[in-house]
Amino acid sequence: MVDPHPLIAALQPLIDAMGAQSVRPSDVEGSDVPLVWGDDVVGGARLPPIHGSLDRIIARVEAEMQRPLPTLSRPEKQQAIRRLDELGAFVLRRAVEDVSEAVGISRITVYSYLNALHR
User: What is the pLDDT of residues 12-53, one digit of tens each?
Assistant: First the structure.
């Protein structure tokens, strides 16, 4: 296997954090983000589909919290809601309903936590 270009190696943690995938220059498609070094395309970043974004964000927060969201204490759930908000989860349609289900709290509680964050 060939070592990745230094630009790809440097950007790989960011690509991974976004849930994206790095692709070879020959595999870059129209919706990919080309990664250019000088005048050459040295690779690309293939972004994940929008569908499933909330699930990926929730999984990321569970990984950060090191356990499933429903098992968290009340202060930890507040912290998880804060982190979900920071990651943009609540700009997605039906996010409050889906997050309340994933965390094991009511929608009203999610709204209460969000209101407390944005005061």
Answer: 999 988 889 999 999 999 999 999 999 999 999 999 888 888
Tokens 């950007």 belong to residue: 11
Strands (E), the chain: 21-23, 33-37, 40-46
The two three-digit tokens of residue 20, written as one number: 């994206």
Alpha-carbon gap, residue 14 to 9, rounded angstroms: 10
Q: Which residues pair with 112 in a beta bridge?
A: none
DSSP 81: H
- Residue given tokens 């595999």 in the structure block: 27
pLDDT of 84: 97
Work out the burial of residue 24: count CB atoms within 10 Å of its CB; fewer than 13 is exposed, 13-18 middle, 19 or more buried.
Answer: middle
Rounded to whole angstroms, the Cα distance separating 3 from 47 reads: 22
**Cβ of 62: how many Cβ atoms within 10 Å?**
18
The model's pTM is 0.71
